[in-house]
Write a structure and sequence with these properties.
The complex is a heterodimer. By secondary structure, chain A is an alpha/beta fold. In chain A, 37% of the residues lie in helices and 28% in strands. The chains are: A alpha/beta, B alpha/beta.
């Protein structure tokens, strides 16, 4: 079983559109949307949800007002400035404390040191994750709650589930749609992957972000390949990216034309391959051949 | 009285919609035509504002966080440190205590519970804050060390480095989770940048949910506004969200972007749009001030 993870460093270079096309070309694979912050793959693959589970990422402190004596010890030891003083709800004199749920990182220090044991420490549901059927195979995906944390944990959970499913269904390929950046969800997406495909674009920002994300992946000793999306928008920059790849011994598996059909396909809820023949779809088919070869090595 | 040090965050659910383009051009338009302005690159994982603004960096400072250091001589192996840690960042084994700096949130819990004072703070470098000038505007950016995951604490330091006497334009990271929250909380206004596609709309909905949860005033900017469908416009009108600026799909802008050039430098007629965007935001903020 092989796991192909698609990331980009810079956002909006075309990760999800490319993943949808690769899913079409692979015909049978387990799909995982690990861009849990802004998941979009479901908009093209239109999954039918089979199983739905809560994602519990951590705990959160809650001060029971009736038990709070207003000593303020919790606010003094909180490193996240997540505890604020407030007037008593019943309008009488004096003040108590309250946890700002957006700033609270669930460390539990206030819970431990409250002299009145007035602080509850409960598990919080940070989102939901799903196992679904799509026209190209089983898909694992999720929604992170609004302003929630622990996206890295959720990414790890999705990848673990996708692997279990691939084993059970005897599938040989998992395709993972990753997130932009180089932070915790990205690290959680790429560790241990068989191939990391970095989708970039021929802009200075694209190259700059590519260099950072390649250095990150190198740190984890991963096999990296690059695709240059919309490469014809700035051929000089594309040459620079190719030169960078060559210098770093990275294969450029795809150079994809700028193609207005990409937006049309997205509006029709189709992958570019399903949308029909176009410059871009021909390029992606070429790329798939090279990727298949790498995956079978 | 006019509020001078207003903080405007430019965010988006989806990446690549044009946050950096909007925030750099907005900062420049404000500084040239209205008031003193600073640009803060809070997309510390992939900071790109410097490519366009080409700042002269005057000062770089390393940012550190506190992580625990254990003196195994003093440790009595009670295990209270690993019990309180919610992030598995400190594990008490039979004879030694092992720490994992990358998992640590610097809550200080282990140090507080340790009965033998065996734990002290150790500074761990997570990245840099660069401070400089880009022509008429102040420039500050954060750079996260590659392989580090402490994005929110670095963003906090970038924001602390700003001076309070001018308009602050914050270039936020993409998404809707902790790094974005850190970048936009305590801002006076949020500009949500999107594009008129199904992905753009889906991620805009998530971003709107986020700013509403944080109770921040906001408006939408549609980039490449004629390149997709009109679902984003319909959504904004249904939700009574102002569309403060639309920028059409222009190959000249795309080319300038690819080379690291500013829109307001290559196509001066776009500057008006950014000035109007600022006037709209400013009016909105002054109005809220009066209501308070």
């Amino acid at each position: 079983m092989k796991e192909l993870v698609v990331i980009s460093g810079k956002g909006g270079t075309g990760k999800t559109s490319i993943v949808a096309s690769l899913a079409t070309l692979a015909e049978k694979a387990v799909l995982a949307d690990c861009d849990v912050d802004a998941a979009d793959l479901h908009l093209v693959l239109e999954p039918t949800i089979k199983r739905r589970e809560d994602f519990i990422g951590g705990k959160q402190a809650f001060i029971v007002e009736d038990n709070c004596i207003g000593c303020g010890r919790c606010a003094r030891i909180c490193k996240f400035e997540a505890i604020e003083e407030k007037a008593l709800s019943n309008g009488s004199k004096g003040s108590v404390y309250r946890v700002d749920t957006i700033s609270c990182e669930g460390c539990g220090v206030c819970v431990e040191f409250c002299p009145r044991e007035a602080i509850e420490f409960n598990e919080v549901v940070n989102g939901q994750w799903f196992i679904s059927d799509t026209r190209y195979g089983t898909m694992v995906h999720a929604t992170l709650g609004i302003a929630q944390e622990n996206s890295g944990k959720l990414v790890s959970l999705i990848r673990r589930e996708a692997k279990e499913i691939a084993k059970k269904e005897n599938q040989s390929l998992i395709i993972v749609d990753g997130s932009p950046g180089i932070g915790c969800p990205v690290i959680a997406s790429i560790t241990g992957a068989d191939i990391v495909l970095v989708v970039t674009e021929p802009t200075l920002s694209g190259l700059h972000d590519l260099e950072r994300v390649v250095e990150l992946a190198r740190g984890f000793d991963l096999s990296i390949v690059v695709a240059i999306n919309k490469y014809d928008l700035n051929p000089d920059m594309s040459d620079k990216i190719e030169a960078y790849a060559l210098q770093n011994d990275i294969e450029v598996v795809g150079k994809i034309h700028y193609d207005k059909s990409v937006t049309k396909a997205q509006i029709n809820r189709e992958s570019l391959i399903e949308h029909g023949d176009s410059l871009g779809s021909t390029d992606i088919k070429e790329m798939w051949k090279r990727l298949s070869k790498r995956l079978s090595e | 009285m006019t509020k001078k040090n207003i903080k405007i965050a430019v965010a988006s659910g989806k990446g690549g919609t044009g946050k950096t383009t909007i925030s750099t051009n907005l900062a420049r338009a404000i500084a040239k035509n209205r008031r003193a302005a600073q640009y803060l690159d809070c997309d510390v994982e992939e900071p790109n504002g410097h490519i366009f603004l080409k700042p002269e960096i005057q000062k770089s400072k390393a940012v550190t966080i506190d992580v625990p250091e254990v003196d195994n001589e003093k440790c009595n192996g009670c295990g209270r440190c690993s019990d309180i840690c919610q992030y598995n960042a400190i594990v008490s084994l039979k004879k030694v205590v092992v720490t994992f700096d990358q998992l640590c949130h610097s809550c200080g819990g282990c140090k507080l519970v340790c009965p033998t004072s065996a734990i002290t703070d150790k500074a761990k470098e997570i990245g840099f804050v660069d401070i400089g000038v880009a022509k008429e505007i102040g420039f500050i950016q954060g750079r996260l060390n590659i392989g580090d995951i402490h994005t929110p604490p670095l963003i906090k330091e970038v924001k602390k480095a700003a001076s309070s006497d001018s308009v602050i334009v914050i270039d936020a990271p993409p998404g809707t989770s902790c790094p974005v929250i850190e970048a936009i909380k305590d801002c006076d206004f949020v500009v949500l940048v999107t594009e008129p596609t199904p992905f753009g709309l889906n991620d805009l909905r998530l971003a709107v949910g986020m700013v509403r949860e944080l109770k921040l005033p906001f408006a939408v900017v549609i980039n490449r506004s004629d390149a997709g469908d009109d679902e984003v416009l319909k959504y904004c009108s249904k939700e009574k969200i102002d569309v403060a600026l639309e920028i059409r799909d222009d190959i000249e802008i795309a080319k300038a972007y690819s080379k690291g050039e500013m829109i307001v430098d290559v196509a001066a007629d776009y500057e008006r749009g950014f000035i109007d965007l600022f006037d709209y935001i400013d009016k909105n903020i002054q109005l809220q001030e009066k209501l308070i």
